[in-house]
Write a structure and sequence with these properties.
It comes from Pollutimonas nitritireducens. Pfam families: TctC. This is Tripartite tricarboxylate transporter substrate binding protein. Belongs to the UPF0065 (bug) family. Strands 1, 2, 3, 4, 5, 6, 7, 8 and 9 form a 9-stranded mixed beta sheet that branches. By secondary structure, this protein is α/β, with parallel strands linked by helices. Helices cover 47% and strands 18% of the residues. The longest helix is centred in the first third of the chain and has 33 residues, at 12-44. It has 13 helices and 9 strands.
């Protein structure tokens, strides 16, 4: 076979073709490398520290539970989880920062029911869509609300309270940790079901509310479970019911609202681990599995119980999505029934 003349190979157009061929081959190799690296990246996750944004100040039950979770996940996933507090605007500032983060699994958040469901429903102007911008990974834990009354109020059950309120319409007052909070909405809903008129007093948190309850200045208070459990020994308030579907282990003698005659009244406040909605499903799956491992650890169960949380519930990614969707419908019903809007 005749070999090509060397002068032909050295022509400028031939050299140009060779460069094009080699350049195209390099680009093809690079493309294969890039596109083939996607699954590898998910498999290698996490390859650097992960931020967990808590939308409340340090020291509260949500912050404490988040730190317990983060410490455990650091060991399970062999990577550091760093808690970062971004509080304000009923938790919506921290939640908004999660929606703006890169959806790579390295910025997660704690999503309380207030900022992930209630805020939008009651008319707060939040810079995100809770349904489309966030995705739930797992539930760290749920808390009940507790209906309490001052010690000298002549009632010993929810039925007694309803009877007294009907005899004095508009004369009794109940306090919550703030307007538009789960406690405010929950008791307004109960008022509608029981056809009673009790005046709402909004406090800035459980602490000043508890102070007025203990001092006898407030007849009825809607407290979080931990706040109520902490006052058991004081003897200066009585507990009539818990809003959860099951009895509260820290107050085992207190009936649920359902047991008190109000069928299907099951309201709990919870804290989800959340991520930007575009996060790789394989990364979400890893995080969900790690969450369920955490929730089964004896240390996690003990420490979360000490913070006042109900027994943990393990959920797959699909189950936690359904859980949130069902709770959203519940809160939509409550908001529509009560008509509570921001500023009420």
């Amino acid at each position: 076979m005749r070999q090509p003349d060397s002068h032909i190979l050295n022509r400028p157009d031939a050299r140009l073709q060779r460069r094009h061929f080699l350049g195209g081959t390099a680009a093809l190799i690079a493309a294969v490398s890039i596109f083939g690296h996607g699954p590898a990246m998910a498999q290698e996750y996490p390859g650097k520290p992960i931020r967990v944004i808590v939308p409340f100040p340090p020291g509260g039950s949500t912050d404490t539970a988040s730190r317990i979770m983060s410490e455990s996940l650091s060991g399970i996933m062999k990577q550091t989880f760093v808690v970062e507090n971004k509080s304000g605007a009923a938790g919506t500032i921290g939640t908004a920062s999660v929606t703006r983060a890169k959806a790579d699994g390295y910025t997660l958040g704690i999503g309380p029911v207030g900022s992930t469901i209630i805020a939008k429903l009651i008319g707060m102007q939040v810079p995100y869509d809770p349904v489309n911008d966030l995705i739930p990974i797992g539930n760290i834990g749920s808390l009940p609300l507790v209906v309490a009354v001052k010690a000298d109020l002549p009632v010993n059950s929810l039925a007694d309270l309803v009877e007294l309120a009907k005899s004095k319409p508009g004369k009794l007052s109940y306090g919550t940790s703030g307007a538009g909070t789960p406690g405010h909405l929950a008791f307004e809903y109960f008022k509608d079901l029981a056809s009673i008129d009790i005046v709402h007093v909004a406090y800035r948190g459980d602490s000043p509310l508890t102070t007025d309850m203990l001092g006898g200045q407030l007849e009825v208070g809607i407290l979080t479970g931990p706040a109520a459990a902490a006052q058991v020994a004081s003897g200066k308030m009585k507990y009539l019911a818990v809003t959860s579907g099951q009895r509260y282990p820290q107050l085992p003698d207190v009936p649920t609202v359902i047991e008190s005659g109000y069928k299907d009244f099951n309201i709990e406040i919870w804290n989800l681990l959340i991520a930007p909605s575009a996060t790789d499903p394989k990364i979400l799956q890893k995080l969900n599995e790690a969450m369920n491992t955490f929730l089964q650890q004896d240390k996690a169960k003990t420490t979360l119980k000490a913070q006042g949380y109900l027994p943990p519930v393990l959920m797959s990614l699909e189950e936690v999505k359904k859980f949130v969707a069902a709770d959203r419908k519940k809160w939509e019903t409550i908001v529509n029934t009560t008509g509570v809007r921001i500023g009420d």
